[in-house]
Design goal:
It is built from 16 helices and 15 strands. The protein is an alpha/beta fold. The protein folds into two domains: 25-34 and 278-408, Alpha-Beta Complex (Aspartate Aminotransferase, domain 1), CATH 3.90.1150; 43-275, Type I PLP-dependent aspartate aminotransferase-like (Major domain) (Aspartate Aminotransferase, domain 2). The strands form four sheets. It has a seven-stranded mixed beta sheet, sandwiched between helices. α4 (67-84) runs parallel beside α11 (262-275) and α12 runs parallel beside α15. 48% of the residues are buried. It binds pyridoxal-5'-phosphate (PLP). Residues 33, 95-97, 124, 126, 172-174, 199, 201-202, 225, 236 line the site of pyridoxal-5'-phosphate (PLP).
């Protein structure tokens, strides 16, 4: 086998990777679900463990030669247990969606009723949307936000649960800026005899830093991604009490997956190790301080925010009363070097491809070291761009401020870019 560098072997891909490095260094990443994994995590992921078949679980594999990948998976499991305070952990789901699928297929039968948060109100595709397996395999019923305060309507959850008798109640969200009361979800589940699941894909980092109440030990199942506020490699995770462990293990493998991605599991172990350190809590604290500062500055600039603000790492700008769609706002900010995503807002009159909202988060900028002061500057940029989305002078000025900020708060200095 010839041992060529990527640059030699495949210049097209090498160029695309370097261009992506360049993009990540030189834009303000404000997509709430994105972050910058550490150098150690990138290294742990880019190694020969990608070659190893390890179907099964540590010490109970269907292949020989698993002694070293077992070290990685055992460390990932032990660290995740202490990080989340969970009795049982499964680190094999390839993604957040796979984690959810494994839980459903382990405990539900096709046709069962599930109750989840409406996608249009901030829920996730895998919580019962009809364009996802969760909505075609199961009968989904949705709860949403209270029309007045735009906060989750727990009374509605209980009413719907009594009426439709779901087998499982799903909590957690992709675009919800407020604290979720998992204790209430657990109580409702108990009263209507439903299993309960909390999907903390977005808020896992806040949860392990004790900055958002934990659902672990309350609801039956907790699922998460490892790449959002948790700042690890792209992947999924399941936590629960010991009593569900066997069913969840077989739900993941052989239920829905084959060989685990051992290089990613090694990187998950590094991620959990980082998250156990005190400076990780400091990071999450700053994520929240930055989100609050950004929300206040945006409100001060006259923007409407869904629910009027944020308790978490993200916020939703409601553009309904403005002369610009979510799609055009995303494009204009993109041209200024600010990466955000369009998002539906409650009762959005435009479809999901256009939308009337923007979702904005602070995890990635906080990883770069930005603080409240920079959030105020960025709120000003957002205001200027959204008020003059086609004004070339405004975009040029915004781009130059973005370049200054990226220069002042560098990231991935060890990585080579296209120049
Ligand atoms: C991101 C997210 C997921 C899915 O994670 P993928 O890794 O993209 O499959 C699931 N649930 C929620 C609430 C999410 O925000």
């Amino acid at each position: 086998m010839e041992e060529m560098t990527l640059a030699k072997a495949d210049p097209e891909i090498a160029h695309a990777v370097r261009a992506e490095i360049d993009r990540e260094k030189n834009t303000l990443v404000m997509i709430a679900s994105e972050n910058y994994a550490s150098r150690a995590i990138l290294e742990a992921q880019a190694n020969v463990m990608t070659n190893k078949y390890a179907e099964g679980y540590p010490e109970k594999r269907y292949y020989g030669g698993c002694e070293y990948v077992d070290v990685a998976e055992r460390l990932a499991i032990e660290r995740a247990k202490s990080l989340f305070g969970a009795e049982y952990v499964n680190v094999q789901p390839h993604s957040g969606s796979q984690a959810n699928m494994a839980v459903y297929l382990a405990f539900l039968k096709p046709g069962d009723v599930i109750l989840g948060m409406d996608l249009a109100h901030g829920g996730h595709l895998t919580h019962g949307s009809t364009v996802n397996f969760s909505g075609t395999l199961f009968q989904s019923v949705f709860y949403g936000l209270h029309p007045e305060n735009q906060v989750i309507d727990y009374d509605q959850i209980e009413d719907l649960a009594r009426k439709h008798k779901p087998k499982m109640i799903i909590s957690g969200a992709s675009a919800y800026p407020r604290t979720i009361d998992f204790e209430k979800i657990k109580e409702i589940g108990k009263r209507v005899n439903a299993l309960t699941m909390a999907d903390i894909a977005h808020i896992a980092g806040l949860v392990v830093a004790s900055l958002h109440p934990t659902p672990v030990g309350r609801v039956d199942f907790v699922t998460s991604t490892t790449h959002k506020t948790l700042r690890g490699p792209r992947g999924g995770l399941i936590l629960s009490g010991e009593k569900y462990g066997r069913a969840l293990d077989s739900g993941v493998f052989p239920g829905i997956q084959g060989g685990p991605l051992m290089h990613v599991i090694a990187a998950k172990a590094v991620c959990f190790g980082e998250a156990l350190r005190p400076d990780f809590r400091e990071y999450q604290r700053q994520v929240l301080l930055n989100a609050r500062a950004l929300a206040e500055a945006l409100l001060g600039a006259g923007f409407d925010l869904v629910s009027g603000g944020t308790d978490t790492h993200l916020m939703l700008i409601d553009l309904t009363e403005r002369n610009i769609t979510g799609l055009d706002a995303e494009r204009a900010l993109g041209r200024a070097g600010i990466a955000v995503n369009k998002n539906t807002v409650p009762n959005d009159k435009r479809g999901p491809r256009v939308t009337s909202g923007l979702r904005i988060g602070t995890p990635a900028l906080t990883t770069r070291g930005m603080k409240e002061e920079e959030m105020a500057v960025i709120a000003g940029l957002i205001k200027n761009v959204l008020e003059g989305p086609e004004n070339e002078k405004v975009l040029k000025d915004a781009r130059s401020t973005v370049a200054e900020l990226c220069g002042e708060f560098p990231i991935y200095e060890f990585l080579e870019q296209n120049g």
